[in-house]
Amino acid sequence: MSANGQNRPARTSRLARKLAVAGTGAAVLALPLIGATTASAATPAAATTATTAATAYPDNLDGWIRESLDIMAQHGIPGTYEGIHRNIMRESSGNPLAINNWDINAINGTPSKGLLQVIDPTFQAYHVEGTSWDPYDPVANITAACNYAADRYGSMDNVFSAY
């Protein structure tokens, strides 16, 4: 009871009102502060929903580049959307099934494949964990090629011709 004889609202109800105004994101972060057992049971579901929504990429060139950039960031591989897109358009015009059957690599039995025209030995050597081992997989191809370009040129952004 306060000094003037009136009941003071509980501290947690004021916090709960603020959380209701702030939204569910703040509520998930503040749940340990409240200590409510029923609310904390909802935390994993909210976190899972947020994670699922964050990892949904469209199945097109834009989505493949964005997914690759996220994987590259996790592995410390440099590169930008613009640099990757520029090189893809030069190498394959955005066709993930592109194959070069006429250059020196093809003559030697190892044609360049995929969006960034990577030969199999390079793809295998620079494959990035968490991606497919299929060199025609767009995300795996982009990520391996960017890993190679980072090792050889500092970044895919520094590549302006066949590499």
Explain how this protein is built.
With 163 residues, the protein is mostly helical. Helices cover 58% and strands 2% of the residues. It contains 8 helices and 2 strands. It has a two-stranded antiparallel sheet with strand order 1-2. Helix 1 (11-22) packs antiparallel against helix 2, helix 4 (61-75) packs across helix 8 and helix 7 packs across helix 8 (138-153). The protein starts with 10 loop residues before the first helix and ends in a 10-residue tail after the last helix. Mean pLDDT is 79; it is low at 1-52.
Offer a quick outline of the entry:
With 163 residues, the protein is mainly alpha-helical. Helix content is 58%, strand content 2%. The protein has a two-stranded antiparallel ribbon with strand order 1-2.
**Proportion in β-strands:** under 5%
What distance lies between the first and last C-alpha atoms, to the nearest angstrom? 76 Å
Mean pLDDT: 79
Name the assembly state: single chain
DSSP E strands, number? 2
Taken from the alpha-carbon principal axes, the silhouette is globular
Can you write the helix and strand succession as a string? HHHHHEHEHH
Q: Can you count the helices? A: 8
Q: Percent of residues in helical segments?
A: 55-70%
> Uncertain regions: pLDDT < 50 for 5+ in a row?
1-52
What would you call the structural class? Answer: mainly alpha
Strand line-up of the largest beta sheet = 1-2
Largest sheet: 2 strands, antiparallel
Task: Report the radius of gyration as a whole number of Å.
Answer: 25 Å
